[in-house]
From TrEMBL:
Family: Belongs to the CRISPR-associated exonuclease Cas4 family.
Protein name: CRISPR-associated exonuclease Cas4
Assigned keywords, A-Z: Antiviral defense, Exonuclease, Hydrolase, Iron, Iron-sulfur, Manganese, Metal-binding, Nuclease
Primary role: CRISPR (clustered regularly interspaced short palindromic repeat) is an adaptive immune system that provides protection against mobile genetic elements (viruses, transposable elements and conjugative plasmids). CRISPR clusters contain sequences complementary to antecedent mobile elements and target invading nucleic acids. CRISPR clusters are transcribed and processed into CRISPR RNA (crRNA).
Gene name of this polypeptide: cas4
Cofactor(s) essential for the protein: iron-sulfur cluster; Mg(2+); Mn(2+); [4Fe-4S] cluster
Keyword Transmembrane helix: no
InterPro entries linked to this entry: Cas4_exonuclease, CRISPR-assoc_prot_Cas4, Dna2/Cas4_DUF83, PDDEXK-like_dom_sf
Chain ranges passing through the membrane: none
GO biological processes: defense response to virus
EC number(s) stated in the UniProt entry for this protein: 3.1.12.1
Organism the protein comes from: Peptoclostridium litorale DSM 5388
Domain DUF83 residues, every copy: 12-200
MF GO annotations: exonuclease activity; iron-sulfur cluster binding; metal ion binding
């Protein structure tokens, strides 16, 4: 199935969806957004990568920043922090002003340490799948740079990770069409959630839209 332009969803949402479906729905279905220290830190780190249209060459690597990506197959669009094009012999894209072939390798910048789940990997793999569709080639790996440890971890885009991206993307589209926000489930990770104040996981443990919840509260007052 191919998604039309109107059906495309933000690629960055896939990490929210993986972390907590309710968080994703609050942000992407109900358009609520709250900044906390973590999201502000995250933005600051991204500012270093988000330097639109800059392309620089370092030896056998061409670096492009803030690259728009999209895929009608998975119905996602967004901006890739950095794409490194590495010189290869067999497969890759060509540049009009450079000799040879160049394989794109996506690099995503994150605050904090590597997570104990695969939300960052899923986001990076979704970027790679967009690039594959746009450029007509297969991308085997990418990297995530974690600010707190100041180094990259390699991510293999294997079958399992690709299947997760496809599954999550389908679920996101279906939830978006239904316009239903899942009920809150208070977990330890809620403390690190930028949407905790809006979500009110203690009191919204039933399926309802936050807007409706607030409206109800005001009516009662
Ligand atoms: S506070 Fe908890 S339940 Fe609510 S959106 Fe955040 S992670 Fe999800």
């Amino acid at each position: 199935m191919k998604y039309s332009e109107d059906e495309m969803l933000m690629l960055s949402g896939i990490q929210h969806f993986y972390f907590c479906k309710r968080q994703w729905a609050l942000i992407h279905v109900e358009n609520q957004w709250v900044e906390n220290v973590r999201t502000i830190e995250g933005k600051h780190i991204h500012e270093k990568a988000d330097d639109p249209f800059i392309v620089e060459t370092r030896g056998d690597i061409v670096i492009a920043r803030s690259v728009p990506v999209s895929s009608s197959e998975i119905g996602l669009y967004g901006i890739a922090d950095v794409i490194e094009f590495r010189r290869t012999k067999n497969e890759g894209v060509s540049f009009s002003d450079k000799e040879g072939l160049w394989m794109p390798v996506p690099v995503e910048y994150k605050r904090g340490e590597p997570k104990d789940d695969a939300r960052d990997e899923v986001q990076l793999c979704a970027q790679a799948m967009c690039l594959e569709e746009m450029l007509g080639l297969k991308i085997e790996k990418g990297y995530i740079f974690y600010n707190s440890i100041k180094r990259r971890t390699e991510v293999d885009f294997d079958k399992g990770l690709r299947a997760s991206v496809i599954k999550l993307s389908k679920e996101m589209h279906s939830m978006f069409n239904e316009k239903k926000t899942p009920k809150a489930r208070r977990e330890k990770y809620c403390r690190a959630c930028s949407m905790e104040e809006v979500c009110q996981p203690k009191v919204t443990g039933k399926r309802c839209r936050v807007k409706d919840y607030i409206k109800k509260g005001l009516a009662e007052e």
